[in-house]
Write a structure and sequence with these properties.
Layout: E1 3-5, E2 12-17, E3 21-26, E4 29-34, H1 44-59, H2 65-75, H3 82-95, E5 116-123, E6 126-132, E7 142-148, E8 160-165, E9 170-173, E10 182-188, E11 202-204
Antiparallel strand pairs: 1-2, 2-3, 3-4, 5-6, 6-9, 7-8, 7-10, 10-11
Helix pairs in contact: 1-3, 2-3
């Protein structure tokens, strides 16, 4: 049910009213929207978009003051936060099959080479993925991980399952089906969102 706080005509409200409309607050601003049940809240596209959103949300605290000032220059005219604008840029890139953007002023550098030695170690209903940085021309921002139950798949937003820091060389994929083979590909990215060469497919089957 919706919960309101008076005085009258200056209401704060939160929650769902009659299963039809939702009252909420975003960045101090009240808003009302139609209540909607996601058709498929775990579709491949949604998982891929959320992977990019999760990374930028968690990594924002690691940005330098100079980089934050670049995002602030873009966010101030829109009355948004620097993180909001970074999310917008990165989400647009993810939807287009590119990588998250660390710095809006970054120019395209050398395209990263592919990571090496991908391994998927079986765990109960999980797979521990490990890989190694390329010997030359590594990325300098993230590593993107794609997964499919179909061999020979082409990486896309719909198969993206995680975005992690480029310094990270392991990732555990959870809530998998025992006995089902899963296939993975991995690539590093640069700060401007350029995706490098993609590691050849490797596979694992959770126990």
């Amino acid at each position: 049910m919706a919960i309101t706080k008076a005085p009258l005509f200056s209401l704060d409200a939160s929650g769902t009213l009659a299963g039809a409309i939702v009252f909420s607050k975003w960045k101090g601003r009240q808003y009302v929207r139609r209540h909607a049940i996601p058709h498929n809240p775990k579709s491949g596209l949604q998982v891929g978009m959320r992977a990019g959103f999760k990374f930028t949300s968690q990594d924002y605290k690691n940005l330098s003051g100079a980089v934050v000032s670049h995002w602030k220059a873009l966010s101030d005219p829109l009355a948004l936060t620097p993180l909001d604008v970074q999310q917008r840029y990165s989400q647009r890139n993810i939807r287009l099959g590119k990588g998250c953007i660390q710095d809006p002023t970054a120019s395209a550098g050398t395209t990263p080479n592919a990571p090496t030695t991908g391994v998927a170690t079986a765990l109960p209903k999980s797979l521990l993925l490990t890989w190694a940085h390329p010997g030359a021309n590594p990325g300098d921002y993230t590593t993107m991980i794609w997964m499919s139950t179909t061999t020979g798949f082409t990486p896309s937003t719909a198969t993206l399952v995680a975005v992690v820091s480029q310094a990270t060389l392991t990732y555990t994929v959870r809530n998998l089906t025992t006995g089902t083979p899963y296939y993975f590909r991995v690539a590093e990215t640069n700060t401007d969102g350029t995706i490098g060469a993609i590691l050849a497919q490797f596979t694992g089957t959770p126990t």
